[in-house]
Amino acid sequence: MFHTLNKELSTTQIIALGFLGAIFIGALILCLPFSSADGNFTPFIDALFTSTTSVCVTGLVVVNTAIHWSLFGKIVILILIQLGGLGIVSFVTGIMMVAGSRITLSDRLLLEDALNLSTLKGLVRFLKFIFRGTFIIEIIGAICYSFVFVPDFGLIKGLWFSIFHAVSAFCNAGIDLLGANSLEPYISNPWINFVTMFLIVSGGIGFIVWMDLKATVKNYFQNKISVKKSLQKLRLHTKITLITTAILILGGALLIFVLEYTNTDTIGKLSFFDKIVASLFQSVTLRTAGFATFSQSGLRHGTVLLCYFLMFIGGSSIGTAGGIKTTTVATLFLSTRAIVKGKTHLVVFRKNIPHQTVTKALAVTMVSISFLLLASVGLYQAEGGSMVDVVYETTSAIATVGLTRDYTSKLHLLGKLIIIICMYLGRIGPISMVIFFNKERKNDFVSFPHEDINVG
Questions:
Q1: If both were cysteines, with which of 88, 220, 262, 424 could 230 make a disulfide (CB 3.0 to 4.6 Å apart)?
Q2: CA-CA distance, 342 to 216, in Å (whole number)?
Q3: Given this model, what pLDDT does residue 2 score?
Q4: What 3-state DSSP class applies to 36?
């Protein structure tokens, strides 16, 4: 299917254009009268914003999702979220597999690039695993949600809410049907909090980690290997992802708990247990999920600074989350530590991480920071307001988080366009956009003399 396009466009360009095509098709459908609850046309810019936030699984909205859209419009949004969460190429390839179409080598190469993998081995099997795992977890999430939503909203509406929020949480979209206050009414409901956190982490941890953990558990039971040896057999990617994720979630929750403990605008009025749960939820949702159990505008500035950091990092590679990814930050941290210790190679768990991976991590971080600064200045010039809120908004958009300090609803045309671009870049990756406009990349066949420079 993709091999004809692949002759004219690079895989990065096909993926970027695929997301763009889905966004515009979604926008055209959403702006039609039968997509809105009142039967009127939705302004195209608002439909485009909603389609972008859905496909890019961000969660920032300029119209109230629960009130503005009809049932048809909400179903379209749900489809766009699922499409964006799994990835355009993965989704289309999955449909081809179900239809029995042949997956060509060009399709496999494109899929490899879309999933950011380094090998074609077992690619189709991996894709089947992603689809199967996604729908199983989303169904489990929907069933768990139904224990609360069905009693609260009735059988039909409660089941619909359960399905929608399970997909939205797993895909790290953060779009809800509960109204302007998101999950704030459920801040003291541990069941909703922990189900949502489970779905967010499941989607954001990365599909490769899923498969590796499954293989490890299977190996443990089949071959009766000890837990220690089973854990040692985990891939380096999995180990770094799990450790970094745990540190960021638990460390972030602890700092939020301490910083916001007496803040009556956030968690100050809650019981001790509810404060722990709310802090943990905030730390998890900052990993590009976008649900909120309390108003972000009430956060203290010290906490906002922490939120910038956690949002910018985001989730893990080859998953539904955005941000520069946990492995990117871990690679930079470990590389810095190695340099400080005077080591010439980056060795982690007795494995040598290639220098190319370190330079890629540095490039991803620097390009993302550059886009963030540019977008923040542009949005501030276009909309004004508090720079704290502006940076929160742009970080949330570029990292596809979806949290806002009540700034999104105030955006005008230019501000909406800037955030749309931020969400799109955040989903495909800022560095992918740089590559998009640089198809004719040349290999360095010429070697020049070495000369050092002083840094630091």
A1: 220
A2: 35
A3: 47
A4: strand
Residue 13 identity (one-letter amino acid)? Q
Q: CB count, 10 Å around CB of 275?
A: 18
Can you read off the two tokens belonging to residue 437? 């406009």
Nearest CA-CA partner of 375 in 410, 422, 435, 417: 422
For the beta carbon of residue 278, count every other beta carbon within 10 angstroms: 22
Q: Let me know: does 371 contact 425? Beta carbons within 8 Å.
A: yes
User: Beta-carbon neighbour count of residue 228 at 10 Å?
Assistant: 7
Residue 389: the pLDDT is: 96
Q: Which tens digits make up the pLDDT trace of 361-380?
A: 898 899 899 999 999 999 99
Residue 348: strand pairing partners: 351
Amino acid at 183: L
Whole-angstrom distance, CA of residue 382 vs CA of residue 416:
10
Cβ proximity of 288 and 323 under 8 Å: yes
Q: Indicate the domain borders of the chain.
A: 3-313
φ and ψ at residue 116, rounded to 5 degrees:
60, 40
Name residues of the chain where pLDDT drops below 50.
1-3, 5
Which residues, 6 or more positions from 444, have their beta carbon under 8 angstroms from its beta carbon? none
C-alpha span between 385 and 402 (Å, rounded)? 19
State the DSSP code for 41: P
Compute the distance between CA of residue 375 and CA of residue 180 in angstroms, rounded to an integer.
26
CA atoms of 302 and 294, how far apart (whole Å): 17
DSSP strands (E only) in 228-358: 346-348, 351-353
Handedness of CA 385, 391, 396, 400 (dihedral sign): positive
C-alpha neighbours within 13 Å on the C-beta side of residue 182: 27
**Per residue in 383-409, is it b (16+ CB within 10 Å) or e — as a string?**
beeeebbbbbbbbbbbbbbbbbbebbe
* Token pair belonging to 250: 């638990």
pTM over the 0.70 mark: yes
Q: Which of 242, 366, 372 lies closest to 316 in space, CA to CA?
A: 242
Give me the DSSP letters along 125-171. HHHHHHHHHHHHHHHHHHHHHHHHHHHHH-HHHHHHHHHHHHHHHHT
Instruction: Tell me the C-alpha distance between 398 and 195, whole Å.
Output: 26
